[in-house]
Amino acid sequence: MSNGQNNVVKMNGKFYSRVDGSRLTDCCHAYSTFFDDELVCKVCYFNVEFGEGDGSEKVDVKTLPSS
Ligand SMILES: [Zn+2]
User: Fold this and answer.
1) Predicted local distance difference test score (pLDDT) of residue 1
2) DSSP secondary structure code for residue 38 in this structure
3) Distance 44 CA to ligand 1 centre (A)
4) What is the reported pLDDT for 57?
5) What is the C-alpha end-to-end distance of the chain, expressed in Å?
């Protein structure tokens, strides 16, 4: 497995990084960044909701499901 998705886990309909527990964008499972006043996915540059990939929503990685 080397598709780059190994560190992404879905929980309660949201995607999280297994590395640091950050919530990732729903669209690309990536981090996001501010572009002007909009929060956008760093991969596809579509607008995302606050909390998706911006580091404000984090969970303890130990609480993430193993599959
Ligand atoms: Zn995206």
Assistant:
1) 42
2) E
3) 4
4) 97
5) 14
Per-residue pLDDT at 21: 97
- Cα of 53 from ligand 1 centre, angstroms: 10
Number of helical (H) and strand (E) elements in the chain, helices listed first: 0, 5
CA 59 to CA 47: how far, in whole Å?
22
Q: Quote the ligand 1 centre to 61 CA distance (angstroms).
A: 22
- Spatial separation of the C-alpha atoms in residues 56 and 67, rounded to whole Å: 24
Q: Are 24 and 8 in contact (CB under 8 A)?
A: yes
- pLDDT tens, position by position, 7-45: 999 999 999 999 999 999 999 999 999 999 999 999 999
Supply 22's token pair: 């950050």
